[in-house]
Predict the structure.
Amino acid sequence: MLVEKKITKPAPLAGGEARKAFRWLAVLAAFRAWLFLAILLAAFELWARVAYGGTFVFNPLNVKSIALFTVTPLLLALGQTFVIISGGIDLSVGFTMGLSAVVTAHVYNWAAQSGNSGLSLVVAVAAGLGIAVVPGLINGLLIADLRVPPFIGTLGMYGVARGVAFLLAKGTTVPVQGGLMGAIGNGETLGFPNLVLLTIAIILVMHYLLSHTRYGQHIYAIGGNVNAALRAGINVRNATIALYILSALSAGCAGIFYTAKFSAGAAQAGEPVLLDSIAAVVIGGASLFGGSGTIIGTIIGALIVAVIQYGLVFVNVEPFWQFVAVGVVIIISVLVDQIQKGARK
Amino acid sequence: MNISNKDPLLDLEHISKRFGGLQALKDVALTLYPGEVLALAGDNGAGKSTLIKTISGVHKPDTGTIKYCGQVIHLETPHQARDAGIETIYQDLAIADNLDVGGNVFLGREIVKRICGLPFVDRRRMRQEALETLQDLDIHIHHPENPLRSLSGGQRQSVAIGRAIHWKARVLIMDEPTAALGVPEQRKVMEIIERLKKSGVGVIFISHNLNDIFQVSDRILVLRRGEKVGERLISETNHDEVVRMMVAG
């Protein structure tokens, strides 16, 4: 982290000991998510061995369940990662997901009347993604053009998407008729749940976008110093709008997956997952101040949240402790981030 | 140094600029030669920043002409100025300190390589090319893969200068480049300016620090209330005279 100056002697204020300690702290902070996941898994494994004489981690059923458990919060978190790196936040993703789930179910039912379930699926997925673009685009325009703070703009959209989703669903859930949607949503390919495989494909796309394209590089720059990005000729407005559309699209995927998995669309599908998704991003090492974060970190963060939730059920703790545990982990993560930021100054 | 036998890089004539009731610049002329450091001096509100913003495309002058490399140019935006080779280093640096050296030098102009037809940002090449430019300026960065926030203020300043040079800036405008730096770092920036001078870049240098001005500049132009009140070769003037021009004309 630290650089010795060649021009002069090393600055006297930072002593060697302090530097070493700081470097260790930085390494520890960088890998805190991995470390924490490992400790969690080890703890549950130990519990399983002692209490049940079984295994937690090496039971394929558990692994599969955790993977499926991770899918929804992770999908919301993937788009959220981009937004948080840019220094924004998207609170509307939960109900964008619900809106998308409801529209997907409706459109699938409507299209299935044609009798071609393959075509209905394609149309329904397109509709689910298409409807998600609307709140994303509005968020983007509000934030990029009208300078509405992301927290407020997306909180407003949270309400709007929620209301519209419930209206479209007439206050109830929309069951899906016809089997293909449910078959894909609950089916497996080569022993892996389809939804997990699809999520992995989305992860690869998002990772590529964030870490290997110029667009991703620009998102980091915007989060690091928006003036630098502007002076470098980056079109910050368009990049920002694209961010919120991307976030909404990843929520839209989560909505479609929900409808496929439960053979029904529900407006409240994403409500309990919003906080988990932000938790995943923050636990994964992204800074709420913007400028840092990775897709891999977010995946680890989402796994941590899922392992806590699934694991607590596994060891028979009252399910409400999940909320407490996830909340505490979020706060600790943000504290670590702040301490790190302070240490750099 | 004999500078009169070269063609000027920049030649401003009769530049005036008015903001409402305020005459910010009045019939100002400025000439900058390649390999020359021109200091702009003047009290707060004398018109220094309006003048450099006119050169860097932020403001359009009401009257007057700007010649760049012998041709009259009309700059509409800072981007046009930058594309033409007129770069400004601001006090707040315009550096994304969460990116590495390569990411900053190539910000907005990233190098991309193709793998299976897909574009990938080529970080290694950007870093290498950025370091080569910096090395030419005798700037050495020890851990170039780290984000810039781990560097000192002076080194970040050098990266900002390096970026300008990498993109072939011929006129470099530096607004208080040493204001936020410690003494050794100020000295380093002064060294870099000397080096830029040798490579034929024209530097316009704004500073409150007369010692810095006398150390690196070839000429000094003094503004007061939007007017040019004096222009001297550094070798033919002294602190007292400059101060007198700044406050009393």
Chain A touches chain B through 31 residues (CB under 8 Å).
